[in-house]
Design a protein that fits this description.
alpha+beta; Butyryl-Coa Dehydrogenase, subunit A, domain 1; Butyryl-CoA Dehydrogenase, subunit A, domain 2; Butyryl-CoA Dehydrogenase, subunit A, domain 3; 3 domains; 4-stranded mixed β-sheet; 54% helix; globular
Length: 379
């Protein structure tokens, strides 16, 4: 297998790393402290091609391969995990499903705006009783006057604070679980749609998570994305790409943690020498580096599978599972190495430690990924 990146992939990765370190990193702590959706920084991310990286140029996107996209998300996450998740949701969970399943009219309406940052997308799948069991949709869309009326409540909808459109999943045949779910493109200014701030979260603060109530929201028939009762398949297809992106995001956090630990190990002295000279510290750093390199190989494999349009489900689950847990271990070891310097509120490592925990939860918990992997192994 050849792992060398093309010149174009290297250039894109370098551009995102430079842009993120210069323009995003200085604001990362303030985003976390204020828990405010960074709308203007999102526009800057869009100008560098990450809000619609995989969308065809004909529809206003960058037309990049999935590996370039994943490398860009990783590079961005080193500076801000929040901006990386915002971009991943917009690209993988909203723009890509529209590009894959949407009509030409839907593509003309949304894709260019989502890619250039003029519009923000949200993915409204989760409910109080439909998290890991995503097929258990209690939101209902009933036919009326040639369109649909949607009633229900979605929770923890990322990007919702600033979103212009959401892909809303609702039961068109209640009781049939995944076989009776459809997807709808719902403008966030629709009458009957209200947004409520979620409870304060431990990490990735500034993601714009909100609960979304739909009280008889009327949408026309052409708001349906894909075919009737195809919504659950669309959601799972989108999550395959989203999980590759979250693996990349976790890698970015993990590598930022490693860099913080390396810098401290070289500069901090005890008993007359840098702590990096001690085997206890060296072994932690070695474990971090090995963990993250292994995670990167799984992420590259999953991104390649997505690009080739092979079935990437298991590869994406493996990449997300291992990368999120490896990054968590890296942040934990970094905090141990920095000790009180890392544990204090406001340190970079403290923020990374809080942010990385979410990667084991959103877009399918680690337990869900293990279920997907086990089903494949046992088949």
């Amino acid at each position: 297998m050849v792992f060398d990146l093309t010149d174009d992939q290297k250039a894109f990765q370098s551009d995102i790393e430079r842009f993120a370190s210069e323009q995003i990193a200085p604001h990362a702590a303030a985003i976390d402290q204020s828990d405010t959706f960074p709308r203007e920084l999102v526009r800057a991310v869009a100008r560098h091609g990450l809000m619609g990286a995989t969308i065809a140029k004909a529809w206003g996107g960058q037309g990049r391969d999935y590996l370039s996209y994943a490398l860009g998300i990783e590079a961005l996450a080193k500076s801000s995990s929040v901006l990386a998740v915002i971009a991943a949701v917009n690209n993988s969970l909203v723009a890509e499903p529209i590009a894959e399943f949407g009509t030409d009219a839907q593509k003309r309406m949304w894709l260019s705006r989502l890619a250039n940052g003029d519009a923000i997308g949200a993915f409204a799948l989760s409910e109080e009783n439909a998290g890991s069991d995503a097929a258990n949709q209690q939101t209902v869309a009933r036919p009326e006057d040639g369109g649909y009326v949607i009633t229900g409540r979605k929770v923890w909808v990322a990007n919702a604070a600033a979103a212009d459109v959401a892909i809303v999943f609702a039961a068109t045949q209640p009781g049939l679980r995944g076989r009776g779910v459809s997807a709808f493109l719902v403008p966030m200014n629709s009458p009957g749609l209200t947004r409520t701030p979620t409870a304060d979260s431990l990490g990735v603060r500034g993601l714009g998570c909100m609960d979304v109530d739909l009280a008889g929201v009327q949408v026309p028939a052409d708001a349906m994305l894909g075919a009737p009762d195809e919504g659950f398949r669309i959601a799972m297809w989108a999550l395959d790409g989203g999980r590759v992106a979250i693996a990349a995001q976790a890698l970015g956090i993990g590598n930022a943690s490693l860099q913080e630990a390396l810098a401290y190990a070289r500069s901090r002295t005890t008993f007359g020498q840098p702590i990096g000279n001690y085997q206890a510290i060296q072994w932690m750093l070695a474990d971090m580096g090995t963990d993250l390199d292994a995670a990167r190989l799984l992420m590259l494999k999953a991104a390649d599978a997505r690009e080739r349009r092979a079935s990437p489900t298991v590869d994406a689950s493996m990449a997300k599972l291992f990368a999120s847990e490896a990054a968590h271990r890296a942040a934990d070891k970094a905090m141990q190495i920095l000790a009180s310097r890392g544990y204090r509120r406001g340190s970079v490592v403290e923020r990374l430690f809080r942010d990385v925990r979410a990667a084991e939860i959103y877009q399918g918990t680690s337990e869900v990924q293990r279920m997907v992997i086990a089903e494949h192994i046992l088949s």
